[in-house]
Amino acid sequence: MIGLGLDDADKAELVARYCAEHAIKKVFVLSPAKFRLALEGPVEHIEWAEVIKYKFYYRLLQEIDGSVLVVVNECLRTQNRNDLTYNCIRHFLYQTSHQMVFQHLPLIDQPDDFMILVDFETKSRWKREKLRPDILSECRIDVRPVPLDLHALPVATDEKTRLAYAAKKRELIDSLGRKDPHTIPRNLYLMSGKAKLRHVTPGQSYIGRNNRFAIEQMKTFKEDAYEHGPHVVFELCHSFIDFADFLALSRQTRVDVLVADLKVDRWYFDRYAAWKGRIADAYAAIRQ
Amino acid sequence: MPTQRYGNKSVLEAARERVAFVFDHFAEVIVSISGGKDSTVLAHFALVEAKRRGRRIGLHFLDEEAVYQSSVEQVEYLMELFPECVNRLWLQIEMRLTNATSVAEGQLVCWEPGRHKDWMRPKKPFSVHHRMWSLESQTVRNKNKGFGFYDAIENFERCYSNTAFLVGLRAAGESPNRWRAVVQNPVTIGGESVYWGTKKGENVALYPLYDWNFHDVWRYIYDEGIRYSKIYDFQFKKGYAISQMRVSSLIHERAFKSVCDLPEFEPKTYDRLLKRIKGIALAQETGRNAKLFAARKLPKNFTSWIAYRDFLLATHHDQDRKHIFVARFARHLNNEHVARQQVRQLVLNDYENNVHVDNRPDPRDELIRYYEEVL
User: Fold this and answer.
1) 8-state DSSP, B207
2) Would you give the DSSP letter of residue B46?
3) DSSP A25
4) How far is it, in rounded angstroms, from Cα B356 to Cα A162?
5) What residue segments make up the domains of chain A, in order of their start?
6) Which residues partner with A4 through β-bridges?
7) Interface test with B, best of A184, A190, A238 (most B CBs within 10 A)
8) Least confident residue range of A129-143, A151-165, A267-281
9) Alpha-carbon Rg of chain B, whole angstroms?
10) Coil, strand or helix at B160
11) Contact, B291 vs B297, CB < 8 A?
12) What are phi and psi of B220, to 5 degrees?
């Protein structure tokens, strides 16, 4: 089955029930370390980065048979459907009919990303197909939609910041050389940091790219846990995967974002608003 | 355009049926072998079927001289597996192969007459030592290169008619382009449209393993207890990715990286190759260097791929071939994206244009323009 939006307790209960009903002798959980599931019984956790290593890959190929359940947890780590880790998991799943796939959101960036989960569920029968509702009828999908709610908290900047922004943009483009063009929005986005500082409330938790302003209760997008939520987004991250991880770990659904009146802030916010729309599209396609 | 769908048969059953179909419809069957795993499996299939029917098939090995000793031993093994069913078509003829490891000696003239002391190994007494066709009828694809590997195959195939040439080409999953190339021109045999083959003059080339994947091949080798090239074991132990685990010529544009590990895998072959042709020691040391053959990183004294390409062209060692690159690059767009690929062709001395150049506007420029507009 594919479980979307389930919390850890739900996942543990589903796994326990499945093991009891199908006389499962061993469970392999393939998961990034920060999403490690607390499961009881004969369970072995394989960290995501280790899946491709020979010492695990070949041992698992030998050990996985019809009495083994493979749990693939929070597995959307790349949009490349032919990624090596995905391919390794594919081969594990060929050897057993018992698999459970858990994911918080149904995509990384595009609705077709959901087909990575479908591949796991269907022994890659539809590996070359895009997301189509008729294919999904073959899968058992338990959907608990995440009602993502993005709110912009406007931040005004002064004339000096706006002039500095225009100069910085010109400088970044002119001096780009061989550097990655994505560094342009990433660097420009940092310009509104000082203006946002004036809107920081003591005692409130924040999340940002880094803690360069030494704000108390500021977390980054690379944490393993997010306590003392809800967190206000000081600045959005460039990668959707990092933001999806934050949502999955924090279970936060309403997200307030500080948005300065610079074009790059609005661009980032609109980018995430469009992303939210694609998530809604994916849910609609899955539910058909 | 046909699409791929899983059927109810295993690839093993389907391949057995295909090979039986070939034997039903063709009196002459020739299997091309290279010593690699795919052709080993295909040859085994065909030999088992030939033995069952009491027939003989040709095993065709076009010997490129600069190959692993393990490949040679694998070919010997296949030819001796059911000797009563085999016509040994081991071709050791003079032909020109691209040497991607050296600009100074850009070609290996394999089995070059008069240089038999330099050959990697002596010719087999039973092999075909001379061209089986007349010079008048001989065709050459690329006059710049001279008579090469594919010319040898084409001329060899034209010596036959109504013959099925079986090739161990696999096209499922791993290469959509290859799959399209195989299935887009089906050939009609006995009134049946065959998607796993193509017409080749008076003959047909057939690919009975076209829907097999890497794991199917190894499963068959294991189940049937067939011997395979030792190189695969070395590559496995060395941690090669599946896509890199292949045995072929040691020196052409797509395979020269094999030279990097050759001293470990087959020291004697490496030693002979060093004496045979130039550039081997450099390729062995730098074959995986991102700044040299791979052309992934720009050397530090250049600020752009265009500048690096122009430098390589201006200082090109081989004046006979420089004009080939100049003429080809004149038809390309002049941007960093294309220039990086042109550099790769130059360092690999790819005058034959085997390493594809993606000739399109630089996607990076478009992205920069977009950011300039929206930010």
Assistant:
1) -
2) H
3) -
4) 46
5) 2-143, 149-286
6) A103, A143
7) A184
8) A129-143
9) 22
10) coil
11) yes
12) -65, -45
What is the C-alpha separation between A157 and B333, in angstroms, rounded? Answer: 43
Q: Do B6 and A178 touch (CB under 8 A)?
A: no
Q: Which pLDDT score, from 0 to 100, does residue B189 have?
A: 94
Q: Shortest CB distance from A169 goes to which of B3, B298, B375?
A: B375
**What pLDDT, on a 0 to 100 scale, did the predictor assign at position B173?**
64
- The dihedral through the CA atoms of B239, B245, B251, B256 has a sign that is negative
Runs of H (alpha helix) within chain A: 8-21, 54-63, 84-94, 114-121, 133-136, 159-174, 183-189, 193-197, 240-250, 263-287
More confident of the two residues B90 and A134:
B90
d(CA B29, CA B21): 11
Tokens linked to B116: 């038999």
Residues of B whose CB is below 8 A from A132: none
Give the span between the Cα atoms of B370 and B375, in whole angstroms: 8
pLDDT of residue B350: 86
- Per the DSSP assignment, residues forming a β-bridge with A238 are none
Cβ of A181 within 8 Å of Cβ of B364? The answer is yes
DSSP assignment letter at B124: P
B375:A176 CB<8 A: no
pLDDT exceeds cutoff 80 at A288 = no
Length of chain A measured in residues = 288
Q: Do A267 and B375 touch (CB under 8 A)?
A: yes
In whole angstroms, what is the distance from residue B115 CA to residue B105 CA? 16
Q: Which two tokens stand for residue B343?
A: 């550099």
Average pLDDT for A159-174: 94
Q: Rounded to 10 degrees, what is the CA torsion of B229, B235, B237, B240?
A: -150
A2-143 to CATH, choices 3.30.1360.120, 3.20.20.450, 3.90.920.20, 3.40.50.10810: 3.40.50.10810
* Phi, psi (degrees; rounded to nearest 5) at A104: -75, -55
Q: How does pLDDT run along chain B (375 residues), one tens digit per residue?
A: 667 777 889 999 999 999 999 999 999 999 999 999 999 999 999 999 999 999 999 999 999 999 999 999 999 999 999 999 999 999 999 999 988 888 788 889 999 999 999 999 999 999 999 999 999 999 998 887 789 999 999 999 999 999 999 999 998 766 777 788 888 888 999 999 999 999 998 999 999 999 998 889 999 999 999 999 999 999 888 878 777 788 878 887 777 778 899 999 999 999 999 999 998 998 898 888 888 888 889 998 998 999 999 999 999 887 878 999 999 999 999 999 999 999 999 988 888 888 889 999 999 999 999 999 999
The answer to whether the Cβ–Cβ distance between A173 and B374 falls below 8 Å is no
A234, exposed or middle or buried, with CB in 10 Å at 0-12, 13-18, 19+? buried
Q: What pLDDT sits at residue B243?
A: 74
Q: Is the dihedral of CA B96, B102, B105, B111 positive or negative?
A: negative
Half-sphere exposure for B25 (CA within 13 Å, toward CB): 20
Q: Where are the alpha helices (DSSP H) in B134-266?
A: 149-157, 176-183, 214-224, 230-238, 258-265
Segment A137-142 mean pLDDT: 90
Mean pLDDT for chain A overall: 94
Helix (H) or strand (E) holding B31: strand B28-32
Q: Which of A58, A123, A128, A180 to mutate to test the interface with B (most CBs of B within 10 A)?
A: A128
3-state secondary structure of B42: helix
DSSP secondary-structure letter at A157?
A: -
